[in-house]
Design a protein that fits this description.
Number of strands: 10
Strand content: 5-15%
Largest sheet: 3 strands, antiparallel
Number of helices: 8
Order of helices and strands: EHEEHEEHEEHEHHHHEE
Shape: rod-shaped
Helix content: 40-55%
Distance between the termini: 77 Å
Radius of gyration: 53 Å
């Protein structure tokens, strides 16, 4: 393992010489071998430097560990007892399947096995191989699930955009339906208004004509006229004209009578809208993507995909 030259501050936890610990002795380590990934005492350090196969290994003092060695140091912390943090794990309890140090073994009523006596065949152990297989399956399943989740994100975003468009289409449908009915009512109002206006404008014209006839009759009977014969003739002529004009005035009054209009809203539509509590709803459906995960029976875990959503709209009786 290559390490850089940057120095890091040691963790300050007491480090024991691993070769000595394997032999059942607790001796403080003074050097760390970045190749063997172990702490060494003074005697083991000298042996490391003399042995031809080991003398080229890089050894570091506690106070001068390269930064890259920190990961190795932290990895080795897992070899210490969780109860007695400065004691190396040396024993295994077959009853409870737990790891212990010498202090734990001394205070426990369980029958402990030395790890040095039980680890020899670990790599050929059936359960060890099953765990290795399960770890591989676990990582594979995580990768498959991650890929599926990414696909679901893409699907969810695209489906969301489609549903927003569907909401907008339904909104436009409702608006156009209402506008269509509204335009029909407005057309009826405009037609009725135009007819009333045309009829009343005719009344106004007839009133002007009747008033003109009245002025002519009045002029023929003016008191300033000195010729009584002329006045008499105008008088006689005025009587039938006046009667005829009164008849015409009566007919014009009838023509001035108009129908009154008032907009009456649709009770059916108003009732339908009153019953509608929402524009629609956005409800979950089952996932539409196929499950891509492999068989996970060995993991004893069930993985369920999240559902997608769908917009449901209310259909109004318009």
């Amino acid at each position: 393992m290559e390490v850089d030259g940057r120095l890091a501050v040691s963790t300050g936890v007491m480090e024991w010489c691993q070769p000595c610990a394997d032999a059942g002795n607790n001796v403080m380590g003074v050097k760390f071998c970045s190749v063997c990934k172990e702490w060494l005492c003074s005697a083991c350090t000298d042996f490391h430097r003399r042995l031809k196969a080991l003398k080229h290994h890089s050894l570091y003092d506690k106070d001068a560990l390269p930064v890259a060695v920190q990961d190795i140091e932290q990895e080795n912390k897992a070899k210490y007892c969780t109860t007695h943090q400065n004691e190396l794990i040396k024993y295994f309890c077959p009853t409870h399947k737990t790891l212990h140090c010498g202090d734990c073994a001394a205070s426990s009523t369980c029958k402990m096995d030395k790890i040095s006596n039980v680890y020899k065949d670990i790599r050929t152990d059936k359960e060890f191989k099953e765990i290795q297989s399960n770890i591989g399956t676990l990582m594979s399943e995580a990768s498959v699930l991650e890929s599926s989740a990414n696909e679901m994100i893409t699907f969810a975003v695209e489906q969301g955009a489609r549903d927003v468009a569907e909401v907008e289409r339904f909104e436009q449908f409702i608006i156009e339906k209402i506008k269509s009915h509204s335009r029909s009512i407005k057309d009826d109002i405009n037609i009725a208004t135009s007819e009333s206006k045309y009829q009343l404008e005719g009344v106004i014209d007839r009133c002007n004509e009747i008033r003109s006839v009245g002025e002519q009759l009045s002029n023929g009977l003016d008191e300033s006229i000195e010729n009584n014969s002329e006045v008499f003739i105008s008088f006689v002529q005025a009587k039938p004209v006046l009667q005829s004009t009164f008849d015409e005035l009566a007919a014009t009054k009838d023509q001035s009578k108009q129908k009154t209009y008032r907009f009456k809203k649709s009770v059916e539509l108003e009732s339908a809208l009153a019953k509608v509590k929402s524009f629609g709803s956005y409800e979950a459906e089952e996932a539409t993507l196929p499950a891509r995960a492999a068989d996970t029976n060995s993991l004893k875990a069930d993985i369920q995909h999240d559902g997608t959503s769908r917009f449901f709209y209310n259909i109004l009786a318009i």
